[in-house]
Task: inverse folding
């Protein structure tokens, strides 16, 4: 169903996201802060990109711009071939519905809905019915099959984040953004979640951009971008955990 | 701590203001009421003092017993031979005699009247202006068949000196020439009343007081005190008269107005109280929600060493500050309300005497004390809740408040409270010998307890109720509707107490509607039972008495088969003052009564000079049977001995007859200037246009008499009730508005609280419209909950009242009930406008990062 509804927007074969010359300045005059200072970025379909860097380096800012949650001071962002930086609110909302998935650091589940209801929430909002087989497979993948009827308050942090990931995948978005999805979890659970993110890329070809502080991300990411002071300063492919730690140290994380 | 509390309030400006509005409205109504009634009282007091300025002593008729307050009976007049005797007293410098009463001005065949204000007429003595009630401002004092009219009426109707105008009092209409315009006391207007003045002989003819006087005013010689003058006059007074000093008379004249104003004041204050009561719910709820949201902050304060007491105090101080602010604002708004009310009355033609707004110290004190007290009391529960915030909550995300020590007794406690409330209401209704005050107190406190109890109980059934009421939203509102229903069920206590505020208003409105429907239904039933068909003749305003001459004229209409004139007034019977009535033999063919003890309609023809019939309950309570003797004393002191010849069982809706009814002939012997309350006419054709035209032609000389069919008669008699009903609805609407602000408040606080959640929903594809729809649906569900519980409660209370009160049967005012339910939905929709807009406007990014 998700695939059909995307028919009206042309998806170029390889680039799910294209950003050019992204600048984001906060405030004006003396006190202005440049959170991003000209970032160029392409994310290919089916790729898992990890974004790393010291606190305040602009990781979240970059995610927000790519996802159309915020507007850049300069530069352009294309998602699924559509230029999003000048869309109005209702067009952006529709774009989010159809092409973008989110995973937050705080799980942001609705406490009065059970796990399954939370997962299908994006579909309900769009007025669509879930595809039963797809939902079952998704919940199975996330290890939630026997937790369908549990409320968030009855789930562990890791389980809650799995519900949130399932929720972001249920619409089969063109691209999934995750900002520190493990930031609120213990080390073991973090590892599980990271593996799940990788598994969803492998199983569904889910294009994903993820901000993380975990050196372990190296093991799962296709590509790792390092941000410092609002610029991409390094890019690693197929790096080992040691490589990642070395770069992190050099950047003072 | 105080600084922390006040700073917090400033930071939450919007919430504070919204919370305060609830109290502002209640305090404003209280202040407005005092200002309005005090101002009118002041003006009236001034007027009557002015009227009796030149008068040292007055003589008036004195009724044989103290009259009931229904106004159809006045003190009897006395012979005018007393006037020369008083003039001859050594200390009397001068004296003047006068008569007065209701006098209707008639222009183009229509009675001149403004709203329900009275139409009064007096005699004036052109040679003694100092002793007149009226002061001439234009033209001359009236000669024979001339009239002076108050200037306000003259201006409103564009009257000119020299013009002819009709006047009707106790006889047929007389045509008179306007000789001038006057003021009453110092006032140019007496609240829409029309005032007219005549010379004594003309007035005596008009009021059918030939040779009689209603009042003598005397002026003392220099150096004689009013008290001494009164003492001197007292020595020569005939029976059934009394003397007062001018000052005492002014007070006594103002007394009727004053007691009416006192009633009006209490009445309006009650509604201010209701609005404040509703406001207290709103405040308690708002503070409670704020505390939930400030759990982190309060916990942090605790970890920093604040004691429970300090936390509690900071909340109470916040309540105190809000209360003070709101009360001060309320007083200002109340002053505006007072001005507005004067303007409003003026607009509908009921100009109130107004010598400037009167703001007594008492008004300010009462308004401040009540406003602050209500707010502080309402803040107590939230304050105790706040003390339950454990310091550990500072370190935890979204921790819940631990339940209080008494939480487990809550359901049973609130059930008991509700039961106690109902018990008190039932006790008040059905217990004997409580007196009006006791009944009202018991019912008032009972109703209050019911409201508190039900609002506490409501938290328990808010979930299922919201599920049911939210079904349409969930069914047709898509995900937004479904989420709205879930949201409404999410915090049942909050939803319940928000709904409760509206519940109170709607319960009272429904109660009023049920009572009104009950009265209407039983009245309609009674008229249909008692009176087969035909025409009724009443005054234009449906309740003033009409001259006997009007009934007599109607009787001479061609085609009349029977006519029953009903006279009425106070009478002393078996040591009590009761409403007595009189009717002629025509009643036999008009009324369809249920006679007990073998009576039949010949009772009407057998009344004669010494027959009487009584109603069942009077007969029962006084052990009367056929043949029992009774003595009936009129206010004139004259009395008549009668025997009971019939006992009838009146229908639930009452009858036109008092407890004892005698023949009209006997009545006219003991009552002075008797008048009819109603005339019922039976005509050959039943109810036809020709019959009506014939009657109206015959009554042309009595423009104040109104010919009505049975249906019209019923509608007219009920119209007064409908007017009262509308006033009640308007006043109760204020409480509904207060509760509307309560819903707005809760929604806004909820939107704050769910900011991050809203951000998430928007992030995963919810449109602004869907957000608005979601908030609106939640609001409507909450409002409907208040509506449903309120209407149900109103019906139950109305049913209880109907079960107790004889002249009310239970009737479901289903049209109004549907209207109220729709009104609840509208309240929900309106309340949601602002919060929904706020929620939809949230910046997704900021919302997601909101703590
Ligand atoms: N709304 C804002 N107003 C002003 N400055 C901002 C705002 N949001 C972010 N910044 C600044 O922009 C810079 C980048 O912030 P950003 O949140 O993107 O960092 P980050 O890399 O996500 O850091 P972290 O790892 O701590 O989450 C920071 O210096 C921050 O102070
Ligand atoms: Mg960040």
Result:
């Amino acid at each position: 169903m998700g695939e059909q509804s995307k028919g009206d927007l042309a998806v170029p074969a390889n680039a799910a996201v294209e950003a050019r010359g992204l600048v984001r300045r906060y405030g004006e005059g003396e006190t202005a802060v440049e959170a991003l200072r000209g970032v160029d970025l392409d994310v290919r379909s089916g790729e898992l990109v990890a974004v790393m860097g010291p606190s305040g380096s602009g990781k979240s800012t970059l995610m927000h711009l790519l996802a159309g949650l915020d507007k850049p001071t300069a530069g352009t962002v294309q998602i699924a071939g559509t230029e999003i930086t000048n869309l109005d609110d209702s067009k952006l909302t529709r774009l989010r519905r159809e092409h973008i998935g989110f995973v937050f650091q705080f799980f942001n589940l609705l406490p009065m809905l059970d796990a399954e209801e939370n997962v299908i929430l994006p579909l309900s909002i769009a007025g669509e019915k879930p595809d039963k087989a797809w939902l079952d497979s998704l919940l199975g993948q996330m290890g939630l099959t026997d937790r369908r009827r549990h409320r968030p308050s009855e789930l562990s942090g890791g389980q809650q984040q799995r519900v949130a990931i399932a929720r972001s995948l249920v619409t089969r978005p063109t691209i999934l953004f995750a900002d520190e999805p493990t930031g609120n979890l213990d080390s073991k659970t973090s590892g599980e979640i990271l593996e799940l993110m990788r598994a969803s890329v492998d199983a569904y070809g889910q294009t994903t951009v993820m901000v993380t502080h975990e050196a372990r991300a190296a093991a799962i990411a296709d590509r790792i971008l390092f941000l410092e002071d609002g610029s991409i300063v390094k890019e690693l492919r197929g790096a080992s955990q040691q490589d990642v730690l070395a770069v992190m140290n050099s950047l003072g994380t | 701590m105080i600084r922390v509390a006040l700073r917090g309030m400033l930071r939450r400006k919007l919430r504070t203001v919204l919370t305060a509005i609830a109290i502002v409205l209640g305090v404003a109504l209280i202040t407005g009421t005092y200002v309005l009634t005090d101002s009118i009282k002041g003006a009236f007091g001034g007027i009557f003092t002015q009227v009796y300025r030149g008068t040292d002593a007055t003589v008036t008729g004195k009724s044989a017993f103290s009259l009931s307050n229904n106004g159809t009976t006045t003190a009897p007049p006395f012979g005018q031979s007393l006037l020369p005797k008083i003039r001859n007293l050594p200390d009397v410098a001068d004296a003047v005699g006068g008569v007065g009463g209701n006098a209707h001005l008639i222009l183009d065949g229509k009675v001149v009247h403004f709203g329900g204000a009275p139409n009064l007429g007096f005699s004036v003595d052109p040679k003694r202006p100092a002793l007149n009630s009226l002061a001439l401002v234009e033209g001359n004092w009236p000669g024979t068949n001339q009239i002076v009219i108050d200037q306000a009426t003259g201006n409103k109707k564009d009257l000119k000196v020299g013009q002819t105008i009709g006047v009707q009092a106790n006889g047929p209409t007389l045509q008179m020439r306007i000789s001038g315009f006057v003021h009453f006391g110092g006032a140019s207007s007496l609240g829409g009343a029309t005032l007219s003045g005549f010379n004594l002989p003309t007035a005596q003819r008009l009021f059918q007081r030939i040779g009689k006087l209603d009042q003598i005013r005397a002026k003392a010689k220099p150096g004689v005190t009013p008290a001494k003058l009164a003492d001197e006059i007292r020595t020569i007074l005939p029976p059934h008269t009394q003397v007062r000093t001018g000052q005492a008379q002014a007070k006594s004249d103002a007394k009727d107005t004053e007691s009416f104003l006192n009633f009006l004041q209490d009445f309006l204050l009650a509604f201010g109280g209701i609005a404040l009561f509703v406001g207290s719910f709103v405040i308690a709820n708002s503070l409670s929600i704020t505390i939930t949201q400030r759990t982190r902050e309060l916990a942090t304060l605790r970890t920093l060493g604040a004691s429970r007491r300090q936390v509690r105090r900071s909340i109470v101080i916040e309540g105190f500050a809000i209360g003070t602010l709101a009360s001060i604002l309320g007083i200002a708004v109340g002053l505006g309300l007072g001005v507005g009310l004067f303007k409003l009355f003026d607009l509908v033609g009921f100009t109130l005497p107004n010598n400037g707004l009167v703001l007594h110290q008492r008004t300010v004190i009462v308004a401040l004390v009540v406003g602050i007290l209500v707010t502080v009391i309402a803040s107590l529960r939230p304050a105790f809740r706040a003390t339950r915030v454990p310091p550990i909550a500072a370190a935890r995300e979204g921790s819940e408040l631990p339940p209080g020590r008494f939480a487990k007794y809550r359901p049973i406690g609130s059930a008991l409270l509700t039961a106690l409330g109902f018990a008190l209401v039932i006790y008040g209704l059905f217990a004997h010998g409580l007196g009006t005050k006791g009944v009202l107190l018991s019912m008032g406190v009972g109703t209050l307890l019911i409201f508190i109890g039900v609002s506490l109980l409501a938290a328990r059934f808010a979930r299922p109720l919201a599920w049911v009421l939210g079904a349409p939203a969930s069914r047709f509102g898509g995900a937004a509707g479904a989420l709205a229903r879930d949201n409404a069920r999410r915090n049942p206590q909050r939803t319940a107490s928000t709904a409760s505020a509206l519940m109170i208003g709607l319960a009272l409105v429904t109660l009023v509607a049920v009572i009104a429907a009950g009265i209407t239904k039983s009245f309609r039933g009674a008229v249909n039972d008692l009176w087969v068909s035909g025409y009724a003749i009443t005054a234009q305003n449906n309740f003033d008495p009409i001259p006997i001459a009007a009934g007599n004229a109607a009787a001479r209409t061609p085609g009349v088969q029977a006519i029953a004139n009903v006279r009425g007034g106070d009478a002393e019977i078996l040591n009590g003052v009761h409403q007595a009535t009189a009717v002629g033999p025509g009643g036999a063919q008009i009324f369809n009564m249920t006679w007990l003890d073998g009576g039949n309609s010949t009772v009407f023809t057998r009344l004669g000079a010494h027959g009487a019939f009584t109603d069942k309950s009077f007969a029962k309570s006084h052990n009367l049977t056929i043949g029992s003797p009774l003595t009936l004393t009129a206010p004139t002191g004259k009395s008549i001995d009668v025997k009971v010849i019939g006992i009838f069982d009146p229908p639930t809706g009452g009858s036109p007859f008092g407890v004892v009814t005698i023949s009209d002939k006997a009545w006219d012997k003991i009552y002075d200037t008797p008048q009819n309350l109603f005339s019922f006419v039976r005509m050959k054709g039943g109810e036809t246009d020709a019959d009506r035209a014939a009657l109206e032609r015959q009554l042309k000389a009595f423009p104040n008499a109104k010919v009505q069919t049975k249906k019209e008669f019923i509608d007219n008699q009920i119209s007064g009730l409908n007017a009262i009903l509308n006033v009640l609805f308007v006043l109760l609407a204020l409480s509904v508005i207060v509760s509307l602000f309560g819903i707005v408040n809760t929604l806004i606080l909820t939107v704050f609280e769910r900011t991050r959640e809203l951000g998430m929903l928007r992030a995963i594809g919810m449109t602004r419209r869907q957000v608005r729809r979601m908030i609106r649906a939640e609001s409507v569900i909450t409002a409907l909950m208040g509506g449903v519980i309120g209407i149900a409660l109103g019906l139950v209370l109305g049913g209880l009242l109907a079960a107790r009160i004889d002249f009310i049967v239970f009737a479901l005012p289903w049209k109004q009930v549907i209207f109220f339910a729709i009104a609840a939905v509208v309240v929900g929709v309106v309340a949601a406008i602002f919060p929904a807009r706020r929620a939809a406007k949230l910046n997704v990014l900021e919302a997601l990062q909101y703590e």
Residues 442-531+718-851 of chain B form one domain. The radius of gyration of chain B is 33 Å. The longest strand of chain B covers residues 560-573. The interface with chain A takes residues 397, 478-480, 482-483, 486-487, 489-490, 756-757, 759-768, 770, 844-845, 848 of chain B (CB under 8 Å).
